[in-house]
Amino acid sequence: MTMLAYEVVPLEDFSKEFGSTTELSSVSIGGQVVNVSDEFFAEAYQLLLVEPPLNLAKQYGPNGELYSGWETRRHNPTYDWWVLLCNQRILQEDILHRCTIKLGTTGIITGFDIDTTHFSGNEAPEASVDAAHEFPNEETTWEGILPKVPLGPSRRHLYKIPATGQATYVRLRIYPDGGIARFRVYGHITPVFPANPVEPFDLAHIFTGGKVVATSNDHFGSSSNLLLPGRGKDMGDGWETKRSYTKDHQDWVTIKLGAPGYLSTAVIDTIHFKGNFPESCDIRGINSQDIAPDANSDDWKMILSPVKLGPHCMHFFRLSSPCEQYTHVKVSIHPDGGIKRIRIIGTMAAKYGADVAEITTRADGKHQTTPIIVEEGWEVIED
After folding, report:
1. What are the residue boundaries of the Allantoicase domain, all occurrences included (predicted)?
2. How many other C-beta atoms can be found within 10 angstroms of the C-beta atom of residue 124?
3. Above 70 in pLDDT, residue 361?
4. Cβ-contact 312, 269 below 8 angstroms
């Protein structure tokens, strides 16, 4: 029997161990519970909620005291299990405790946060995790990636594991029963690029490998939200900085693109930010081998001069230097405020420089706006 390797990570080391990863299980990128053996006291969908678990002590429903998390009934003779899909669209078929799932994205798993906050006396005593990648059927074998580990009451449990192969879904088991507040799977998304190498797409999108690598301020909302799919539901899933009272202040975020590219269009979305949107923004680009280039380096080149922003709307801007290759962009907002999403539209640079230059430059030398792939709810504004 193969022994599974894992490492217990102290809570204070979370940023060091998981700061460069993506929460593959998050509902914000399509993570979804697709099957569960039992959820008598608390429904399993709550495991994936972005917000921390609420304290619902002394609040009761038809089945008993309420909890923010997943809780099964008592006295289970075997174990309870739960299946998670890290994806947007699924086809589900239940066959003997299994689900058939069609995935739109995959990832490599490197760790977990199994959180029992507010579960004390009814927490699951132990848990394990399995994963699979191939299309499941009756013959599918789950691969164990985290062995049975002990859980304590009302605390977060961080586990780091060796990087797995590409995984499309995972199965969380608890022994023998009980509750877990949140379950977060960390790792690295496998980027998805257009089949046509000269087709424009969003190089900053989380599904194409885009990643926020530095920011000046995340006081009210995380800058990593800027790259999520869709337009979100409220200000809470955007990026918002604290108020500034210093003359000429600016906040900024550095985004590492999913691939080096030639950039044509930027989309700055301020939806839901009505009285706290930035007055203006600008964008700089750089071609760097560093994960997070120095934000103050002289090598950054202006590709969008300062432009005004408005409340609760999507802004489309044409970028300069479309024939130059960039690996990162730095978006600066003046003086502060909130943005919901940033899209950086362009084409992949690798091996296709001549083709890209040809389709992005007119005979008169002026930049041509190329067609862009839009998400639901986008409005394309033509000159």
Report:
1. 30-189, 209-348
2. 25
3. no
4. no
Tokens 């939200």 map to which residue?
A: 225
Strands 64-65 and 60-61 turn out to be antiparallel
pLDDT at 97 over 70: no
Span 191-215, pLDDT tens digits: 989 988 889 999 999 999 999 999 9
Q: Position 149: which residue type?
A: V
Distance CA 313, CA 330 (A): 21
- CB count in 10 Å sphere of residue 16: 10
Question: Cβ–Cβ contacts within 10 Å for residue 318, how many?
Answer: 15
Burial of 332 (0-12, 13-18, 19+ CB in 10 A): buried
Give the gyration radius of the chain's Cα atoms: 23
pLDDT per position as a tens digit, 125-138? 999 998 887 765 56
Cα torsion for 101, 105, 111, 117, to the nearest 10°? -70
Query: What secondary structure letter does DSSP report for 204?
Result: T
Tokens representing 325 are: 């290759």
User: 291: which 2 tokens?
Assistant: 């994960």
DSSP classification of residue 318: E
Question: How far apart are the C-alpha atoms of 36 and 146, rounded to whole Å?
Answer: 19
Beta bridge partners of 301: 285
Query: Within 13 A of 8's CA, how many CA atoms are on the CB side?
Result: 7
- Return the closest-CA partner of residue 251 out of 286, 292, 209, 279: 279
215 Cβ contact list (under 8 Å, min separation 6): 223, 239, 251, 252, 253, 254
Asked if residue 176 has a cis previous peptide bond (ω within 30° of 0), the answer is yes
Name the token pair of 34.
Answer: 């697709």
- If you average pLDDT over each of 161-170, 274-283, 341-350, 351-360, which comes out highest? 274-283
Give the 3-state secondary structure of residue 126.
Answer: strand
CB-based contact 288:328 (threshold 8 Å): yes
Entry field: residues in the chain: 383
The residue type at 352: Y
Amino acid at 191: P
CA–CA dist 321, 258 (Å, integer): 19
pLDDT of residue 199: 93
- Alpha helix stretches (DSSP H) within 21-139: none
Q: Which residue has the tokens 């003997």?
A: 96
Prediction pTM value = 0.82
